[in-house]
Amino acid sequence: MTMERQIKTATAIKCALPDSGAGRTPDVAELEQRAERQRVMGELAADVVHDINNLLAAVEAISRLLDMNVEDDNLSALVRRLSRSAHTGRGMTRRLLDFVHDDGNGMAEVDLAEIVENEVELLDHIVSRQISLKIETEESSTRVFADPVRVRSALFNLIANARDSISGAGEIAVRQYVVPSVGSEPMCQVLTVADSGCGMDKDTLKKVGQRYFTTKGKGKGSGLGLASVIELANDCGGRVEIESTEDVGTRVRLILPCV
To answer: Which of 7, 114, 158, 220 shows a CA-CA span of 20 to 30 A to 254?
Structure first.
């Protein structure tokens, strides 16, 4: 039985944002320490990414100079490949810097497919080499009204959760598609992330999405990733649906109404 068919047998729930006091909640001092640590790590990451971008710029410039002075065709091809790789790396670091420096308050009409396609390179680096990442998007003229930074963050959180649920080899499938209007239901864009990981039992499934609830070990999860995805859906008038089966996998759907 395929991952697609197996997960369809799971119990499905529609998640609304739960009360912040529910679930396993750390004390105030721990939350303050965690928030401060995340703030410092964000600043440090931005500094490191900026320095890496400068180094890649130097590599790209030097490789272009080398290419102009190399006569051997095979060596010239290698130098051009180095230049292209450095250029690709700079593009990735620029997107990371944009993500870190954006305050996340820019609501706009966006296409989920375009956001997914623009982040393919970064998504490849989030998952391990043992995990197969499959991405499918649907070309459409529809748009949703959302903050693109929060949408990217939601995508990264869903991919990271899927990755962490897989021990060893596995598969993550990312799919974006459009659902037509039916009755009182508006047309929607849907972003689905499905994995072949450990899955969850019914009791755990009821708690996911609660602030600070995490299935990961101590120090490995904040319990805010999925909660932030649900907040995004609520703010956009959409919803999140989760299906999961133990030892089979999990599927999360982010459903946002089209404008």
So the answer is: 220
Q: What is the residue-averaged pLDDT of the chain?
A: 81
Q: Are 253 and 240 in contact (CB under 8 A)?
A: yes
* Residues 215 and 221 sit within 8 Å (Cβ to Cβ): yes
Torsion angle (degrees, nearest 10) of CA 189, 131, 248, 211: -60
Q: How far apart are CA 51 and CA 71, in angstroms?
A: 32
Q: How far apart are CA 255 and CA 238, in angstroms?
A: 5
Asked whether 148 and 109 are in contact (CB, 8 A), the reply is: no
How many C-beta neighbours within 10 Å does residue 109 have? 12
Alpha carbon distance 28, 216 (integer Å): 20
Compute the distance between CA of residue 210 and CA of residue 244 in angstroms, rounded to an integer.
16
How far, in Å, CA of 51 to CA of 57, rounded?
A: 10
Q: How many helices (H) and strands (E) does the chain have?
A: 8, 8
Instruction: Give residue-wise pLDDT tens across range 26-82.
Output: 566 776 777 777 777 777 877 888 888 888 888 988 888 888 888 888 888 888 888
